[in-house]
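Ticket #4471: complex job returned nothing on first submit. Input attached below:
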Amino acid sequence: MGVSDLKSKHVPLKEMSYEPKELFRGYTDRVLHINLDNNSVNIKNVSPQMKEKFIGGKGYGLRLLWDATKPETKWNDNENEIVISPGPICGITQYAGAGKSLVVSISPITDIVIDSNVGGYFGPFLKFSGFDALELQGKAKNDVIIVIDGVKNTVTIEEAPAEEIDSHILAEQLTEMYSDSPEPRDMKNISVISAGHAADHTMIGMLNFSWYDIKRKKCRLKQAGRGGIGTVFRDKKIKAVVVKAAGVTQDPNHVADMEPIRERGARFAREMKELDPHQCRMKQEGTAHLVNIMNDYNLLPTHNFKFGSHKDADALHSRVWNKKFTQGMNDGCWIGCTMNCAKAVDDFVLKSGPYKGQAVIVDGPEYETAAGVGSNMGIFDADTVIELNFYCDTYGIDTISFGTMTAFAMECFENGLITKEHTGGMDLSFGNIESALELIHQMARGEGFGKIVGLGVRGMKKYFHEHFDADMNFMNDIGMENKGLEYSQYVSKESLAQQGGYAMTNKGPQHDEAWLIFMDMVNNHIPTFENKAEALHYFPMFRTWFGLMGLCKLPWNDVEPENNAETDEPAKVPEHVDNYVTIYNAVTGSNIDKAEMIRQSERVYNFQRTFNIRRGYGLRKHDAQPYRAAGPVTVEEYKSMEEFYDRKMKEDIGVDPAGKSVGEKIAITRKYREDRYEQLLDAVYLRRGWTSNGVPKIEHMKDLGMDLPEVIEVLSKHQ
Amino acid sequence: MDTVTVNGNVIAWKEGMTVRNVLDEMKYSFRLLIIKVNGGIVKRENWDDFSVPKNADIKVIHLMSGG
Ligand code: SF4
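Support reply: We reran it on our side without changes. The output follows.
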């Protein structure tokens, strides 16, 4: 069916015209609120207090979601929202990585707030259309498409029964449908948010944000992957949200002072040109350059995080990705990103599923995907990784969770906790490519064992225990989830700081708050609890700031200025931090310094912790980690590095391993490591201004200027 | 046996050992590194030629990337 036929089937439910509003210094000071229960469309003004305390991006998302929900709101209640907010710097084109949106919602797998950052053109176009944030609330009766037309200044809600659900087709259909013409110059003014069939049937649905690649003449997709926001989206019966912009001018944000932004942008572009080829090769390999490096440092999860390296890992080596990715393209997921790391595999011919035999473009794989659907599932085959990457994306599910969940199910299978009787006859041994592909197609069809795996690790543990009488203690040890979210793809066993970097996060174990493994484990730079606590204060706060601004984290430290080594604190990349402070001030006309930058983040970070507490979470017990994240659970694991663990026992614990059975040695190691983690919690809570139960102290919130009455009301019950 | 210390790990020193040899020995394949030998920075362009003296204290500082 052509797009005009598809469109002819639309049933208009609402059309609203609005007054255009230009951006001023990065803000429109307006929020677009849509409620699908009654198809209402409203524009709210942002209060000066909200702007001052919450800044934008994730901050706005949290503020709006708090106001829209009650403490007991569930993910699939009508009042739950998906809030998309780009942040004040988002949309500039003179500095790399300035096109991100932050998406927040109550998560179906964690029951707390999830936040996910994503590229693509939607965030900038939303701002250019006159809004700093979009709130999606309520549920439609039938599938709808929401269109924000920033050219005509209208918002429409239309029932849309005929378009495809899967993203690689839907994004193309809608881009063509709402573009003024099929010419690339017009197609590039459309961005689409969509999910896919598996988001309908699993708890790990994600959102694709598109942009039109004028060289390839195809839609590209970037993912808001974590925490099941795509599941919420489809539960609301939203098929897609489309935004249309008039185009991109030199200064759509109407910044306070463009010159410093240009100057820093040019300086960064020079670094990329001159240094990236000798440093991370982001422009050629994206984050996939990390696979073999992680393998070399024993950090690449293989077989459900049992091991950190594998003899076959060369099959997923950066050399392989370098060849698979189309080279020589400007692969930026927003205009002006000179890092250009959004790599793609072109003309990949699918071997399975409903699109078998078709040649498609696959966005990625990124490192997390290669490790998640590759090594962690025992799959050392690049083409299978690409195929799983494609289907995760188009079906609308998160590659990281899919990898960690499937790896968990595989280990349960290999240990006899589940059998072929439970899996519908599937052999779920590690490395079984056929079964991995079948699982993902089952998720899209909403049937079979795939639907059970789609519950997530926490859901599977409960299901396997209740239905198959599987051993809960063992599953708690090997099930790589914390707060209900699946771990992202780094082995944290030998880095205590990273264990905190994962399990002490607000949303669950995603590495975007802190990645401290090298600093801790390899450089031995943060040996004491106090050192680790300082790192677990600074880096999560610093990295939160990207999410307030609409910025990508990668240009901060995936290329480094030539003289970075000679600076006081090279791990912080001081020159790039200074770029960000300068750009923020130049966009908004403010005059902050790098200390205020951290305080901006601290306010929002502590608000998010308070949000979790308000919902009955966010306490010390919720920062507990599965033992697999901290040390060897099984005899096989211990034996794989017996010499190392024995030496550690002698040196660190002061116990002679001679004459002890492996079981005894596992128990001794475990007791020591679990105790160290508790000591880490104490040190970090102290540094962050929290009680020993992990609750922000009221005096600390006062000090931050975040003693809002609703915050104090929640915290005062826990002081 | 003559040795050098690399990030706190003691490894054997060999005649003519360069910074590059140390990186290979330690399997340090990451590229965002700052290397100091007895407190002095050794620039990337000299890694192949710079000989490390016996008993040297070598710091191979890995910066962060990814994610
Ligand atoms: S660095 Fe990569 S992910 Fe970040 S904005 Fe640029 S292209 Fe997108």
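The first helix of chain B runs from residue 19 to 26. Closing as resolved unless it happens again.
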